[in-house]
């Protein structure tokens, strides 16, 4: 049963890939589609087989001077095999004495999808192209070029584009947005680009990465494009959006989703405050700020903030005034109970995902282009989200409270689910 499900999944992916390839102006028939698919994998496997036989014989195809054996090449035999992109014909090289036994594609082996699967998996774990080449050589005894590795991993680009444009649910109870900076080559120059990650929590309390957007400078125009993309993919409502003080975001979301509550991340607000505080005072000030963000209600929190600013920490008055300036987006979580507060007051859920991204990219000093970065982040996302199998704790309590605060905006989806 498990094998049948796996084959059905692979078949589905083949169909998706075929539809994308069919858009190529050079593709006019079904046969053209399959030829394009074969071009992705065929040369890789064929190259491995040729390298295997060369190692067996001890001399290159046209290197007769170094031939030290009475054995030689003896043409090819045809073999049909299964790969992750469908069936294909391979030419299995033969030797005249019949002593050569292929290791990459053993005599009775019909499924070779594990080879390319290993390569894509290693890429997703953050290994550099150089490391992948070495690992494939160690595992299979053959050497691949960096260009070939790139071609193999490029196979997932159509899958990424489909993932980035997939339909989304009509409502998300919480949405989190944050960015992480990477170095990317652009027009021959290494520059810093930010990958903005959008994560949603659906009505059943499960997390989902909704999209990854690379490259643009934060602005209301940029965020409006992101939010319109989410709307075009099916989102009709977002109850609460937690963000890291993203430039232009509050203005953009009020245009795209005017009823959404915007919550500024408290952890990021504390970090930004400490940028202007002497190291020796930081621990004490952080402890005092708990009187603000852990206060029982909004009025007491604001009163405690004024007390810190006007009395004990007058020398950091400007730093604390940032809390006043952004109070409208800092204070919304005080209206809710503990279960909702714990979810919305910080973007730590994305911070955790960002740690996975940093782990996957730690061996990369820079990326050759946006696609290379997106491939790495997508594969890291898939690896990380495999473990997202549980809903938020006390979700029934959270849902009950949201139903009271947002009434029909959420209840109509609960009753229809």
Automatic annotation (TrEMBL):
GO molecular function: DNA binding; transposase activity
InterPro entries to which the protein is assigned, alphabetical: Transposase_mutator
Gene Ontology BP term (one): DNA transposition
Keywords recorded for this protein, A-Z: DNA recombination, DNA-binding, Transposable element, Transposition
Top-rank taxon: Bacteria
PANTHER family associated with the record: MUTATOR FAMILY TRANSPOSASE (PTHR33217:SF8), TRANSPOSASE FOR INSERTION SEQUENCE ELEMENT IS1081 (PTHR33217)
Task performed by this protein: Required for the transposition of the insertion element.
Family, as annotated: Belongs to the transposase mutator family.
Protein name (record): Mutator family transposase
């Amino acid at each position: 049963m498990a094998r049948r499900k796996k084959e059905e999944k692979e078949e589905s992916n083949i169909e998706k890939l075929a539809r994308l390839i069919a858009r190529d102006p050079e593709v006019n028939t079904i046969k053209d589609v399959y030829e394009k698919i074969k071009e992705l994998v065929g040369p890789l496997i064929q190259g491995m087989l040729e390298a295997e036989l060369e190692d067996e014989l001890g001399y290159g195809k046209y290197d007769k001077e170094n031939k030290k054996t009475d054995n030689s090449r003896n043409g090819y035999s045809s073999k049909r095999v299964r790969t992750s992109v469908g069936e294909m014909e391979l030419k299995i090289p033969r030797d005249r004495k019949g002593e050569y036994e292929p290791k990459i594609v053993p005599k009775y082996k019909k499924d070779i999808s594990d080879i390319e699967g290993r390569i894509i998996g290693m890429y997703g774990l953050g290994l550099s192209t150089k490391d992948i080449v070495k690992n494939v050589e160690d595992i299979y005894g053959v050497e691949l070029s960096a260009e070939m590795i790139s071609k193999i991993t490029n196979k997932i680009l159509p899958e990424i584009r489909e993932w980035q444009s997939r339909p989304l649910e009509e409502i998300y109870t919480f949405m989190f947005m944050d960015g992480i900076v990477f170095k990317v080559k652009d027009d021959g120059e290494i520059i810093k680009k930010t990958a903005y990650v959008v994560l949603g929590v659906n009505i059943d309390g499960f997390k989902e990465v909704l999209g990854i957007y690379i490259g643009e400078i934060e602005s209301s125009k940029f965020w409006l494009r992101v939010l319109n993309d989410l709307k075009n993919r099916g989102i009709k409502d977002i109850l609460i959006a937690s963000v890291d003080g993203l430039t232009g975001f509050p203005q953009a979301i009020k245009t795209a989703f005017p009823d959404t509550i915007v919550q500024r991340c408290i952890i990021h607000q504390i970090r930004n405050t400490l940028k202007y505080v002497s190291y020796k005072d930081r621990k004490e000030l952080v402890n005092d700020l708990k009187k603000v963000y852990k206060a029982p209600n909004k009025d007491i929190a604001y009163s405690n903030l004024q007390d810190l600013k006007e009395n004990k920490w007058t020398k950091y008055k400007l730093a604390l005034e940032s809390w006043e300036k952004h109070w409208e987006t800092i204070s919304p979580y005080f209206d809710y109970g503990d279960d909702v507060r714990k979810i919305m007051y910080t973007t730590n859920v994305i911070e955790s995902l960002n740690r996975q991204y940093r782990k996957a990219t730690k061996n990369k000093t820079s990326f050759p282009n946006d696609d290379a970065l997106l491939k790495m982040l997508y594969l890291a996302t898939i690896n990380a989200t495999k473990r997202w199998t549980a809903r938020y704790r006390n979700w029934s309590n959270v849902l009950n409270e949201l139903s009271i605060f947002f009434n029909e905006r959420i209840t109509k989806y609960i009753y229809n689910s």
